[in-house]
Specification:
This protein is mainly alpha-helical and about 100 residues long.
Length: about 100
């Protein structure tokens, strides 16, 4: 048996605080680049511009990315999963809490 339970648990737990950076990235992309392409509708009260949001989004996403990397890098060396399987699991598992919140709301 491949040891996938520890990476799955760690990344599911990381997925709980990951809701914030995922939402911030969605808000940023939905209101600017996707709205400019006509794929989404811009929030009507959003008139502060993109620069303010970048000041908020970049540090939050960078901090989460650093925490995610620091948690997964040593864990990767201790598992018997192939690198491709490990990183696929580690990238998809944190998205599950956000997906659950989307489905519930």
């Amino acid at each position: 048996m491949k040891h996938w339970s520890a990476p799955l648990l760690v990344n599911l737990l990381l997925g709980i605080p990951a809701v914030v950076p995922i939402w911030l990235l969605w808000y940023l992309t939905a209101n600017w680049p996707l709205a400019e392409l006509g794929l989404t509708v811009r929030e009507p009260t959003e008139n502060d511009g993109m620069a303010l949001w970048l000041v908020i989004v970049v540090p939050v996403v960078a901090l989460f990315g650093l925490i995610w990397w620091l948690a997964n890098s040593p864990l990767r060396r201790r598992t018997s999963l192939t690198p491709r399987t490990y990183w696929l699991l580690s990238l998809s598992a944190p998205l599950l809490p956000t997906a659950v919140l989307i489905l519930v709301s």
